[in-house]
Prior knowledge:
The structure holds two protein chains of two kinds.
Chain A: H1 3-8, H2 11-18, E1 30-35, E2 42-50, E3 53-62, H3 65-78, H4 83-112, H5 122-125, H6 130-146
Antiparallel strand pairs in A: 1-2, 2-3
Helix pairs in contact in A: 2-3, 3-6, 4-6
Chain B: E1 10-13, H1 20-29, E2 35-37, H2 42-48, E3 53-57, H3 64-81
Antiparallel strand pairs in B: 1-3, 2-3
Amino acid sequence: VTADLHALYEAAVLDHSRRPRNRRAIEGAHRAEQHNRMCGDRVVVYLRVEHDVIQDVSFEGSACAIAIASASLMTEAVSGQAVARADTAFEGLRQHATERSRLAGRARRRAAVSDSGEVRDARVAGVGPCDRRLASRGVGAHIEDQG
Amino acid sequence: VGTAEARAGVLSFVVEGVHPHDVATVLDRAGVAVRAGHHCCQPLMARLAVPATVRASVSIYNTRADVDALVDALDDVRTIFT
Lengths: 147, 82
């Protein structure tokens, strides 16, 4: 097992993917479902809010270890928080994830395009499929930092 | 080319409790190229009640060492995820 695999599947990710927290449905709660047709991930999030405070949050679904761990960590991070605070956390997380992804993509494109603008590798100059996976790992780590 | 009904170098499989994309990531890092996903047949995935599968394809170009590498990497998968 190589070091970069350990980096990708760090302890928190493995722990939360093996034993996801709050993986259950909540009757009569807000419910949102997202299906990623690219990879087949399907996640449903349940949210019970009273007086602008998240009283209970949970999720169900099937996805890779990193996506499941992200959902699990997210439920722990926002449970008991004011909706406004969760919104702020989400916005920070979104910026963190998309900024990482954007910078990585820009660096790759720079490498693929010469100074004169000539495209050396059109395939690499496009958008890489790995970004999303790395970004979602960043998301998980970010939530953990906040928790 | 042949007349045998059940003969193919294509093997789709799942590792219990591990998402196929995670299996494929570990195999990839071990230098084993497989495909993971729906293989453009979501209705069949639904029928089989699996989120996706891993698919290894062997051909005349592959050696016994290639297959051994696949099996060793699958041991890594179990070590990491179970």
